Amino acid sequence: RRLDLAHHLPAQADHRLIASLGGSRIITRAEGSTIFDGEGNAILDGMAGLWCVNVGYGREELAKAAYDQMLELPYYNTFFRTATPPPVKLAARIASKMGGHLSHVFFNSSGSEAVDTVFRLARHYWKLKGQPQRRIFISRWNAYHGSTVAGVSLGGMKAMHAQGDLPVPGVEHVMQPYLFGEGFGEDPDAFAARAAQAIEDRILEVGPENVAAFIGEPVQGAGGVIIPPEGYWPRVEAICRKYGILLVCDEVICGFGRLGQWFGHHHYGVKPDMISMAKGLSSGYLPISATGVADHIVAELREKGGDFVHGYTYSGHPTAAAVALANLDIIEREGLVERTREDTGPYLARALATLNDHPLVGETRSLGLIGAVEIVREPGTNKRFLDKEGEAGPVVRDLCIRNGLMVRGIRDTIVCCPPLIITHAEIDRLVSIIRRSLDEAEP
Ligand code: PMP
């Protein structure tokens, strides 16, 4: 494994030095769905940056929103019982998108912080309710919920747990609803029932009276674009209700149109008690995140809690919030949510499906504009390279980048998550570059 030295660059590093350090590619500018490196190579950004640049690059409107707000009031805190107009407007706007029962938001800067807010707030809530023993969170293996202590703990990445002696006590992990993996060949609904049952079994094992919350992404992103069968989430919701457990959806990737709805949980028709959101909220132009909180939790805090002593210097940052507002304007004006649901999402699904005849492809899947291609050793099976020869994903990913497409390789899976403005022609190019890279990877 190579260290990602991009995080440790000396201040004076020039391009050649960086190349010799870790092969890092310097991205110097971008437009629409295309990024350009220091040598002028155009690369189609099949990852929307890091699952975030939903409205694409080069939006003057967002730069202007930041400029205007910086001149008016670049920063003020929300700590001295103060507020500024942009986050107040943004909170109302987010609440209108979340839906009736989720009426409040707590602002942070990153997705990890939004998840940390969930962690503290859920336990605090149960303490206020007179059930302080409800401390356990249930999550899934391979889940990614951020890089802070709470995020890594709630996440299910064993390699990350090994660094920093995590998870903290009180986090339980259960199986992913990964049909092509654990459920290969199974009837999708029977598998959904089995994956949900694993959650209920764990709840019963640790004692329902000790469980604070279940957390999951509607579609797991960094876990490998795991799209659960339709029957999974309603079952998970029913289990949470049965035992009075809070349901939390991590919408950091799925929010703001990615799955063809404003939030991923809308697609599955469930009603979480809290959601975390980031990335697409500002399309990555400035860091901002939020935690959406249901009425009944806010009511409890108001009634008994006094202040929830929690917050960051940059909570409710006015400039970031002004950019987020302008970003939501674009998403609405251009109908990007509907377009993803009705046009580009189905188009991506059909385009990816043309790869199914490739001998290295075991499955393609997508929902809205997030998709995956499973690379297998034998057609018709789910046998991995991973088991024997190392991971195939990063090998094909490197070929894709060389061929002008940025994607991620997660174990033996190629995943994509392009800007929501991607065109049909760009989707065709994305898929044809994956095919060409698979051809080149074949021994
Ligand atoms: N949750 C999910 C589902 C994510 O995908 C991410 C980031 N990839 C995070 C949380 C953490 O967000 P951030 O990197 O902004 O802290």
UniProtKB/TrEMBL annotation:
Keywords: Aminotransferase, Pyridoxal phosphate, Transferase. Gene3D superfamilies: Aspartate Aminotransferase, domain 1 (3.90.1150.10), Type I PLP-dependent aspartate aminotransferase-like (Major domain) (3.40.640.10). GO terms for cellular component: cytosol. CDD domains: OAT_like (cd00610). Its cofactor is pyridoxal 5'-phosphate. GO terms for molecular function: pyridoxal phosphate binding; transaminase activity. Belongs to the class-III pyridoxal-phosphate-dependent aminotransferase family. This is Aspartate aminotransferase family protein. The lineage of its organism: Bacteria, Pseudomonadati, Pseudomonadota, Alphaproteobacteria, Caulobacterales.
